[in-house]
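S.,

Sequence below, as promised.
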Amino acid sequence: MSKSSFQNRIIRAVKLDSNLYEEVEADKGALWEAMAVVIFSSIAAGIGIGLKTGGFSGIITGTMASLISWYVWAYLTYFIGTKFLPEPQTKADHGELLRTIGFSSSPGLIRVLGIIPGLGSVVYSAAAIWMLVAMVVAVRQALDYNSTLRAIGVCVIGWVVQILILTVAISIISPAP
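The prediction came back faster than expected:
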């Protein structure tokens, strides 16, 4: 895929183009691009907060955490969407969700604008909402849903489960006070 095609895919993802999500769902070669979007979005977030929360090492740590979160989120979404809340036509695999959910991180690229004084919280709030809407579109397309409400349900359930997993993991890793 050429650089301009990759950029075009990012723009289409930001525009919530459901055809883009169908395209990357079917394109097994788009996994690396989806991973790049997650990485770029994480770096944009790190720059947008002005490197205040750990400098360069904070960006590296945040990027690694984003990659792990992306993988776990895609698996949870796959499992919930295909096993607990499928529609009759639902068929998907983990890779399809990795690709579509990775591209749903595209709106997070605007978080780099958070470096502009006074815009940080506005930019981060807008990016969070935009990324959530993109994720719902991505999940609806990847799971072949007719119902946007069902896609929202899968995203909410996955979010709650992921928070529980992260809470348990942090409590295991962190030393007791």
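Helices lie at 3-14, 18-26, 31-48, 55-84, 94-103, 120-142, 148-173.

Coffee later?
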